[in-house]
């Protein structure tokens, strides 16, 4: 599953399955894609350099992650990392925050009944104005296989 920011709604040239309906074998990673993706992966794809089959990634213009980390959260009281499984069928929530002045993207996960942890799971510095156009669409995409 992926949260997507893109300059268009038409992804008719994209492929399903591992490309999540966002890119294809010919354009994955191209700067002209102008897409920003936060993906939650349950399948490890060697061609995208996935770290494992249970991770969150921040992707720019394709499905190879700029940053990725194992799924989980940092406990506010102990500071310890608490692992979670995307395929657990347990409800979870995801926060995606972008700080424009610092040009920093933060992704935070937690169980559904928990407040947002203070420490994000994943952070990446990136100037989104280099990728995103003035008009963008926000949405979700998902695929199997």
UniProtKB/TrEMBL annotation:
Gene3D superfamilies: 2.60.120.200. The keyword Cytoplasm does not apply. Keywords: Lectin. Residues 1-145 form the Legume lectin domain. CDD domains: lectin_legume_LecRK_Arcelin_ConA. GO terms for molecular function: carbohydrate binding. Pfam families: Lectin_legB. The keyword tRNA processing does not apply. InterPro entries: ConA-like_dom_sf, Legume_lectin_dom, Leguminous_Lectin. Belongs to the leguminous lectin family. This is Legume lectin domain-containing protein.
């Amino acid at each position: 599953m992926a949260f997507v920011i893109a300059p268009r709604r038409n992804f008719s040239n994209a492929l399903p399955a591992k490309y999540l309906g966002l890119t294809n074998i010919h354009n994955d990673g191209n700067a002209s894609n102008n897409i920003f993706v936060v993906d939650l992966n349950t399948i490890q794809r060697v061609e995208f350099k996935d770290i494992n089959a249970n991770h969150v990634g921040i992707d720019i213009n394709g499905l190879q992650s700029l940053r990725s980390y194992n799924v989980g959260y940092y406990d506010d009281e102990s500071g310890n990392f608490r692992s979670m499984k995307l395929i657990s069928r347990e409800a979870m929530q995801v926060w995606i925050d972008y700080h424009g002045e610092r040009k920093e993207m933060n992704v935070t996960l937690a169980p559904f009944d928990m407040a947002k942890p203070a420490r994000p799971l994943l952070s990446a510095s990136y100037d989104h104005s280099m990728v995103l156009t003035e008009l963008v669409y926000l949405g979700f995409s998902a695929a199997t296989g």
